[in-house]
Design a protein that fits this description.
The chain is α/β, with parallel strands linked by helices. Strand 19 and strand 20 form a beta hairpin. It has two domains: 148 residues, FAD/NAD(P)-binding domain (3-Layer(bba) Sandwich), CATH 3.50.50; 195 residues, D-Amino Acid Oxidase, subunit A, domain 2 (D-Amino Acid Oxidase, Chain A, domain 2, 2-Layer Sandwich). The strands form four sheets. Strands 4, 5, 6, 7, 14, 15, 16, 17 and 18 form a nine-stranded mixed sheet that branches. It has a six-stranded mixed sheet with strand order 9-2-1-13-20-19, with helices on one face.
Length: 406
């Protein structure tokens, strides 16, 4: 035990939880630190509850490049881009624009798909050994396509991913409605839908908490809540985490897995990662007369419908250029209106809850950053809208980069 390597993981969301698990099961002595009273209180809490192994298309693309003026002017309710005079933000925007080529979009999409496939395999291995409860439903995913342009783009994406080994199908309107009868309520007739039978839904926050509990019981991981980290540094060959109480915790390795807030800790070390917060919303409401069983994504409106049994969760909207986590009631009503316009009888929208808003850590190429920054300090962050989907695979990759550096 005297030679056992030690690690401190900063951030108790889904990325921190999976990072702690991957290290601990390889024999590391792990401490997991989070500022909240329990795990998964940030972006992991109110997300769309999707394991979208098929839906890995990078945000930066030639199509969105053409939409930039509308996004800046606020003409798109689903995606707003708020420009600000901040060097890091403007640098991110320039890198994003550089990824809006067809070649970059293909590369980013396929590399994310490969990581998603690795995540799926790691999740299956975990659940075979430890049957964690998290309201798992193997429902599949339908992505509604409302225009010929969307249909053409989806066919090209389908072929690209099919060559990479993904099982997906293009369904006609009639085939999609046969698979999910709730789609017949749609006021706007869609031309077709992409169907991925292997996609799943579940409770991300519950999964993270139960995985941490498993880590504590099976692998001796120490989970420290209400511990606010204010600094990270190196001292005498050791990595040091400084808490607001003045306490310093030392380990062989520190893993920064704290999402969009990561740069405030890395900048004093001379590092800055291209990660910006992207705000998203969600709400739940009682099931309506036509609640979908299959996970449904309305691509044009950037919303997803997820069945929770007696309630329906709707998540979506993207706002880049804000770090405010408060629920803007006007924006929440916009999400509710978009859901009602898409599937008017999926939920009792008049009884929607007060909603949730969170910040997703986004990179310009939509790919997470998992690497060693310097000896003893690693990062696993920037998973954007696919945090849970990519979490298990990123944790495995983290262990590889750590092992190769030691």
């Amino acid at each position: 035990m005297g030679n056992q390597r030690s690690a401190i993981v900063v951030g108790g969301g889904i990325i921190g939880a999976t990072s702690a698990y991957a290290l601990a099961r390889r024999g590391w002595r792990v401490q997991l630190i989070d500022r909240e009273a329990q795990a998964a209180q940030g972006a992991s809490l109110g997300n769309g509850r999707q394991l979208s192994y098929s839906h890995t298309n990078a945000l930066a693309s030639p199509a969105i490049l053409r939409e930039i003026p509308r996004l800046v002017l606020g003409c798109d309710e689903a995606f707003k881009l708020r420009l600000k005079l901040d060097r890091a933000f403007l640098s991110w925007i320039l890198q994003f624009l550089g990824n809006c080529t067809s070649a970059a979009n293909r590369k980013n999409t396929l590399e994310t798909l490969e990581l998603a496939d690795r995540s799926r395999a790691a999740m299956e291995q975990l659940l075979e050994q430890h049957p964690i409860e998290f309201e798992r439903r193997q429902t599949g995913k339908l992505v509604l396509l409302r225009s010929q342009a969307e249909l053409n783009a989806a066919r090209a994406s389908l072929e690209m991913k099919r060559l990479a080994g993904l099982v997906q199908a293009m369904l006609s309107y009639q085939e999609a409605c046969f698979l999910e009868p709730a789609l017949e309520q749609a006021r706007e007739i869609f031309l077709g839908a992409l169907y991925a039978p292997g996609d799943e839904t579940g409770n991300c926050a519950e999964f993270a908490r139960n995985l941490i509990a498993l880590c504590e019981e099976q692998f001796g991981v120490e989970f420290h809540t209400l511990s606010r980290v204010i600094g990270v540094n190196r001292k005498c060959g050791r990595s040091v985490v400084v808490l607001d109480s003045g306490e310093e915790r030392q380990a062989d390795l520190v893993v920064m897995a704290n999402g969009h807030a990561i740069n405030q800790f890395l900048e004093p070390l001379g590092h800055r990662l291209p990660i910006q917060p992207m705000k998203g919303y969600s709400f739940t409401a009682p099931v309506g007369n036509w609640a979908p069983r299959v996970s449904v994504t309305d691509q044009r409106r950037r919303i997803v419908f997820t069945s929770l049994g007696d309630r329906v969760l709707v998540a979506g909207i993207a706002e880049l250029g804000t770090s405010d986590t408060r629920v803007d009631q006007l924006r929440l009503q916009s999400v509710i209106a978009a859901a009602r316009a898409s599937l008017p009888e999926a939920a009792v929208y008049s009884e929607a809850d007060s909603g949730w808003a969170g910040l997703r850590p986004m990179t310009p190429n939509s790919r997470p950053i998992t690497c060693m920054l310097e000896p003893g300090i690693a990062v696993n962050a920037g998973h954007g809208m696919l945090g849970w989907t990519l979490a298990m695979g990123s944790a495995e990759k983290l262990c590889e980069v750590v092992e190769s550096a030691t």
